[in-house]
Amino acid sequence: MLNPVDPTTTPAWKRLTELHDTMTPDLRAWFADDPERAKRFSYELGDLYVDLSKNLLTDDVRDALVELAEQVDVPGRRDAMYAGEHINITEDRAVLHTALRRPATDSLTVDGQDVVADVHEVLEKIYAFARRVRSGEWTGITGKPIKTVVNIGIGGSDLGPVMVYEALKPYVQKGLECRFISNIDPTDCAEKVADLDPETTLFIIASKTSTTLETLTNARMARDWFLAALQAKGIETDGAIAKHFVAVSTALDKVAEFGIDPANAFGFWNWVGGRYSVDSAVGTILAVAIGPENFADFLSGFHTVDEHFATKAPAENVPMLMGLLNVWYVNFFKAGSHAILPYAQYLHRFPAYLQQLTMESNGKSVRWDGSPVTTETGEVFWGEPGTNGQHAFYQLIHQGTQLIPADFIAVANPAHPTKDGGVDVHELFLSNYLAQTAALAFGKTADEVRAEGTAEEIVPARVFAGNKPTTSILAPALTPAVVGELIALYEHITFTQGIVWGIDSFDQWGVELGKKLALEIAPAVQGDEEALAGQDASTRGLITRYRSLRH
């Protein structure tokens, strides 16, 4: 793998600097002077309609961003990823989440293995399992069908499945419920299993290597609850674990040691990063919930965007353009955060999902050759569904001193069309979606405020500067394919930014230090005085206070 190109040394970076320094953003004038602006900066991407026209974007800026992508070789590194080259430098791994959604008719040999054939072999196993659970053929220890499936994972083994399950609730089989345990706080496990019937509950333990501390701890707590609950009902527990626990793991020895039948373990590969794994065996609970056919549609949505990203020239490549716009805002406008604002309640976990995808990927300060980065990298992704956010934090976006780019996501057809006194409630909801981007873009001048009869002393408080950048994404409905398209869109946005910055977006060493220290600190918390003495003064004081407070 070639060393990264320092983006700040490229002619395109110099051009972007000049454009930024001489730009006076004026979206009102840009739209007034160019009747074709909205059309020219709007794109079709599968089922998604993506309008970039309310961004701080001109033809010159777009051209310079495209030149930047070419000068740091985003297209070349994209092609290397798709081909299975080991672009995850620090772990010496291929990055092949795109292979998880390629059709079975494709073939891709990486490190001597046809990875597409491997993917579909596991998929068929998952689908067969899902059909057995959904049909009632899979039964628990007492012969009853499964009514609740509980996924135990953390990070990518939790955030993705939770988000997609919530997004596709209308597609979940009636009579089947899914729950998710992730936090090692024992409250999480206790609350999730409190009202469950052990006879009709199935657990999925999702940990690739079966070594993740939080997941294994929760799995043991769930197993203890399950066995105790059966015993309380006078039910024999021999062989019960194998009927009520399955695994997403490749460590078959550890799976068997836990009591799970290795035949009921669904594996994936080291070229699948956790935050890119919802479309792998990590999504087994989703295949059970929404069914194999809908899960296949989910994968097809990913693949639609993958094909677009792989084949479109940078100037017409929606994920690449959106990634480049993020670079424009982070590096030239010094934007420190990015809001994700879904006007679709079922997407309420999408911002949290994107936090891991983007911030774990691009929160880096060294480049893939080990040298320091030469620019700001990453941004804080955050958000809430509209209109909730409007009554919480939109004030900061509209009139605060920070530039906060925002992505607004909506669907045309809701799962629950409703009228209130003859008014279509979804259309009222979508009016807010449209109004907010217009208000952010065009603002409100002092003269417009005065014209409303506002007292002069209050006028400054009611002025909206406008020129706040937004991207609008609109889909026909929140289908499995659309959810797949949305995830893949942001995966490739994240990739584009990482390549521009020269960082390895596919490792996460920053996650490891705290996990390691937690293991070292645990004995001190549990009463080991020697371990306590080895801690820094602050940690030692906190542990001492904790131990004095613990009943």
Describe this structure in words.
By secondary structure, this protein is an alpha/beta fold. Helix content is 47%, strand content 11%. The protein contains 22 helices and 15 strands. The chain has helices at 11-22, 27-33, 37-40, 59-71, 74-83, 115-135, 159-167, 186-193, 213-232, 240-244, 252-258, 284-290, 292-311, 318-332, 350-362, 394-399, 425-442, 446-451, 480-501, 509-525, 529-533, 537-549, and strands at 42-45, 48-51, 109-110, 113-114, 148-152, 177-181, 201-206, 245-248, 265-266, 337-343, 380-382, 406-411, 419-420, 423-424, 470-475. The strands form 4 sheets. It has a 6-stranded mixed β-sheet, sandwiched between helices. Strand 5, helix 7 (159-167) and strand 6 form a beta-alpha-beta unit. Helix 4 (59-71) packs across helix 14 (318-332), helix 12 crosses helix 13 (292-311) and helix 15 (350-362) runs parallel beside helix 19 (480-501). The protein is globular and about 80 Å long. The chain starts with 10 loop residues before the first helix and ends with a helix. The mean pLDDT is 96.
How would you summarize what this structure contains?
With 551 residues, this protein is α/β, with parallel strands linked by helices. The protein has 22 helices and 15 strands.
Q: What is the C-alpha radius of gyration, as a whole number of Å?
A: 25 Å
Helix/sheet category: alpha/beta
Q: With helices defined by DSSP (H or I, 4 residues minimum), what is the helix count?
A: 22
Gross morphology is globular
